[in-house]
Amino acid sequence: MRKQPRLGEVLFSFSGGLALWLGAAALGGAGCSLSQNFNECNADTDCGPGPSGEKLYCSDGLCAIGTPKSKLCTEVFPSPAPANAIPIGALVNISSGNDGQTTLAMKLAIEEMNKARIGDGDRPMVLHICDYGKVSGDALKSMQILARERGVLAVIGPTSSANVLAVADEVRRSGIPLMSPSATSPLISDLQPPGLFFRVVPSDAKQGPLLSKQISPPTARYAMLYVDDAYGSGLKDAFFKSFPANTPVATVAYSEKTGDQAQLSAKLQQILTAGTLDYLVAITNEFSDSVVTGLKPLGSTTKILMADGAKNENVLALANTADMATKTHLSRISGTAPTVEGTNGLYSAFLSAFAGRFQQNAASSIYNAFSYDAAYALGIALAGAGNDATPARIVEMLLRINGGAKMMSVGGTQYLNAKRAIQAGAGLTLSGTTGGIGFDTHGDRLSALFEKWTINTTVTPPRFDSTPLQ
């Protein structure tokens, strides 16, 4: 009897996948052996790539698109989890993205809050971490694991806009709220019902106008390069909406899906041959370092404007070179991004605690701070909801963080005070590492801080420098 495909997996079976399997075997050379039933395998290494370059996994003896459920959501924190712990989920991309430190920031917040919770007689929290990578469908499959098997009450993440949209149906079905630290697409503001899709990061409807203001004079000749997903398209549209009088000489979309990096050079060539440019606006994400490297031949007088997706440790690492041509290239790059609060001491305290706990510098990406704040926003709402919290009760508590006059800070020393303040009623503003946090009735952040960033290649180690934007 032929095994049925698992939820979210596409199996290459004899009835529908022989031609695809043969193509995969020809490409990879390591496909399932023809001396066996053609679609049998014993390990992932027995499976070649799929027809579009997708990684195939061995699942129940079959080569399948999509990571097997057993290989998703494999980490819990702290480990071993206390028997009475309250489960919280995390949807991140560590394996093929930039979420390594982002996840560490969540862990730091969980540790700090658990110390306060245990001291106050509350059940500790345990974080079920799902690394969904880039494989299509894995974010949804991970959300289903968290909701249907792990019984989580809330989820931090997903960290990308596309994956927030991908898991939306399961969020609606389960009623479990999300708190994304970094999903900025304006499309998220329209997701229904309100009160399930929270984010501590502001919508790109606010960043787009700030990015367009960096072009001076407004009549300058420019081109647009953007990643063709919910994040890139949303920010691109917000940019054009605020900059209608000047159209680009070229608009080029590229993909960051699995297997698409090989096509990036051809896309960049369309920019390199667009003629003399005053500016290139490049909205990128996980391929940011590859884009920056590929743009080195761009005319030396062209300024490169990027956005928050490019302010990450992979781009900064490009400056670790003695090559002056590379450093000169990096010095012409600037960008916009949501930013942190530099005056209340909370961000510097976070950096110090992060370095002490993990021996790493969390300043390489602003989304490390947003992740820390996201964990605290959920953790405070959970505390307010009590030891017998439900997802609906957590949503009620989150909506009490609505920009009111009561001010409470993130951090372990203020956690219990924030718990009691939110239990007392609405009207709370959470003072975070990223500034004052309050949510509207949908779950969007009410206000936020933004910056203009540059890459400082004259110091060792190199760093991002930033100035506030209004």
Task: Write structural notes for this entry.
The protein is α/β, with parallel strands linked by helices and about 475 residues long. It has 15 helices and 19 strands. Strands 11-10-12-13-14-18-19 form a seven-stranded mixed sheet, sandwiched between helices. It has a six-stranded mixed sheet with strand order 4-6-5-7-8-9. α13 (about 365-385) crosses α14. The longest helix is centred in the first third of the chain and has 20 residues, at about 100-120. Mean pLDDT is about 90; it is low at about 1-40.
Task: Give the structural class.
Answer: alpha/beta
Which sheet architecture does the biggest sheet show? Answer: 7 strands, mixed
Number of strands: 19
Radius of gyration: 23 Å
- Helical content stands at 25-40%
Number of helices: 15
Shape: globular
Q: Major sheet: order of its strands?
A: 11-10-12-13-14-18-19
In percent, how much strand structure appears in the residues? Answer: 15-25%
Quaternary organization: single chain
- Cα(first) to Cα(last) distance is 64 Å
Average of per-residue pLDDT values: 90
